[in-house]
Amino acid sequence: MRFDNRLLDEIKARLSLSDIVGRRVSWDRRKTQPGRGDFWACCPFHQEKSPSFHVDDRRGRYKCFGCGASGDHFRFLTDTEGLSFPEAVERLAEQAGVVLPVADPKIARQERKKAGLAEVCEMAAQFFQMEFGGPRGQTARAYVQRRQLSAETLNEFRFGFAPDTRDSLKRYLAEKGVEEPVMVEAGLVIKPDDGRPSYDRFRGRLMIPIHDERGRVVAFGGRTLDPEGQPKYLNSPETPLFHKGVMLFNAHRAREPAFKSGQAFVVEGYLDAIALWQAGLRHVVATLGTAFTEDQVLRLWKLAAEPVVCFDGDAAGISAAHRAIDRILPVLRSGHSFQFCFLPDGQDPDDLIKARGIAGFHEEAAKAQPLFEAVWEREISAANLDTPERKAALEKRFEDLIGTIADERVRKRYQLDFRLRLSNLFYEHSRRQRSAAQGQGQRQGWGQGGDRGRGRPGDAAASLQLLTRGPGGEAITAPQGPLFGTERLVCGMCVKFPDLLDKHIERVASLPFADPLHAGFRNALCRVARDFNSLTAAQLAEGVDDSFYKILHEVMTADEGAAQKHGDFSGLYQRFPLLKATPPEDFIEAAFLHFLDQIELMALEQELKQELAAAEQAFDELAWNRIRGLTQDLSRRREECAREEGELAERAKKLRHAGPSMVPGHGNQAASSPH
């Protein structure tokens, strides 16, 4: 629904922003000046010790000078409580006493109809709860006792029981004045086509209400209590209120905890979701017996940027995850993805919690794979690379999958990453074949835990760690030049962020790298970027020397002790740890350009040294002009670099202070700045 700007302005005029924000923060008494409408507090969106979150009541705007969050009354509710924009408008309009315009008559009739059906579903929920606590509910109560569900959980989720009779619910609703067609439309009663009397849809089942995002009961899930009963789980049919492919069980409870934690977990069954909720994991939802749909994916992204899908580790769970992957890929977009956690074989989340507690569940969840990794493993697990045709077939499968991604930036990043991985895979396969033919033992390759030596601290990026081992454990080369680490970091960022390579390819291509290995790696990357549409992974594998893969191995291979969730870029994360926090794209680009500036600055300094050395042998006016021009240029570039470095260091400091909200799963682990 669209809202007129005048209506929105009226709502904001009647409600002070400081009152809305003040429910979630404590104002800093020293900086706040209420008389001027000037309020300061510690930011509710990230962790900080000194207040940098500012509310201007006169303008009706807020801004955090630490993390950059900003907005108005409505944005604050959508960002702190997970409300949609229309929901935020409705809530604030009610608080402000502003009457919202009447919707289109047809839409208004539909809403009244839905409200009536929701009332009937609420009556049914009350009936099932009553039966659960009555004499006929003994079997259901015994079942939930075996499941170790607490009284608090049973009350919160409003567990009920549908008697094993033909029309108990039907008669109850009729006594409340509900007409039979309405019962049928609500999915509670079935009307046979052959003229027989209608009867209750749910009979002899443990009943669990399903709520919409507003918290209204709109449907039910029923679990049979008969060991031989089929189906084991029965959901309400599609109704004007309930669409299985759109809804998520427990979403209305999970929304705020998910926003606060920055995480969301997705499980297959609602009893699994309830077990996790009872164990203290409140940001959990469940699908309703269907494969992921685009609507569900988009709803999950409202809860968290990278929800963790927790499926059983058996064949059925893996198959369900693979179906989910195919549904997710087309709607991937920048900053949003999924992670996949496969639980130990034979266990569902409820089993895992009973065996190992919530800590055991978190241990398994910490092993979750990024979507990229799940796709890669799925496709190569059964791949055969013994002929050129089979290599081409594998590459074609990846191309077809990635081609379904609508977001151009994400699609291009996936294309480059997979192209590099495939070329490395083909290279390793050929190398092992050559080694076998020569009677040599197989060496460990990329992703197989090869020997990775430790290096020394780097250069201007003071915290960088130098890795100097190749795919088979052989030394790459001793570092050459004071900016060896920065050059390697630029190489890694070009692979991790191909959009930066695309955007600045001319400048990257002409960088004066001091290390010839880096220059060769850069040249190969630029070739891939420029000839992307005509260059296959096999051609890339054949067209570069071993040193390319040695550097690629360091950049992309997961290192021992690195968090699994960071996937294959642990070498890069060690050099630039702040990347673990997924900083804003503009910060990443600014850091990347600063590293380019450093390399160019060093080359300029070397050029000046050469000119000064040459001037000692032959000094004339032409030499003087060259030296003066280089000196002025160098002075200007040094000032620019120093300013950039200060700005980046300040931003990095604020990003580090963001804590768990910026680095999920890493607590308050410090991430060093680029310098």
From TrEMBL:
Biased composition (Basic and acidic residues): 640-652
Domain of life: Bacteria
Cofactor: Zn(2+)
Cofactor binding note: Binds 1 zinc ion per monomer.
Gene3D superfamilies, per database record: 3.40.1360.10, DNA primase, catalytic core, N-terminal domain (3.90.980.10), Zinc finger, CHC2-type domain (3.90.580.10)
Every Toprim domain range: 262-344
Pfam families assigned: DNAG_N, Toprim_2, Zn_ribbon_DnaG
Reactions mediated catalytically: ssDNA + n NTP = ssDNA/pppN(pN)n-1 hybrid + (n-1) diphosphate
Residues forming coiled coils: 598-625
PROSITE patterns: TOPRIM
Region Disordered, annotated ranges: 433-459, 640-675
Start-end of CHC2-type zinc fingers: 43-67
Record keywords: Coiled coil, DNA replication, DNA-binding, DNA-directed RNA polymerase, Magnesium, Metal-binding, Nucleotidyltransferase, Primosome, Transcription, Transferase, Zinc, Zinc-finger
Enzyme Commission number(s) of this protein: 2.7.7.101
Protein function: RNA polymerase that catalyzes the synthesis of short RNA molecules used as primers for DNA polymerase during DNA replication.
Entry note about domains: Contains an N-terminal zinc-binding domain, a central core domain that contains the primase activity, and a C-terminal DnaB-binding domain.
HAMAP family found in the cross-reference section: DNA_primase_DnaG (MF_00974)
NCBIfam families linked to this entry: dnaG
Assigned protein family: Belongs to the DnaG primase family.
Subunit text: Monomer. Interacts with DnaB.
Name recorded for this polypeptide: DNA primase
Organism: Pannonibacter anstelovis
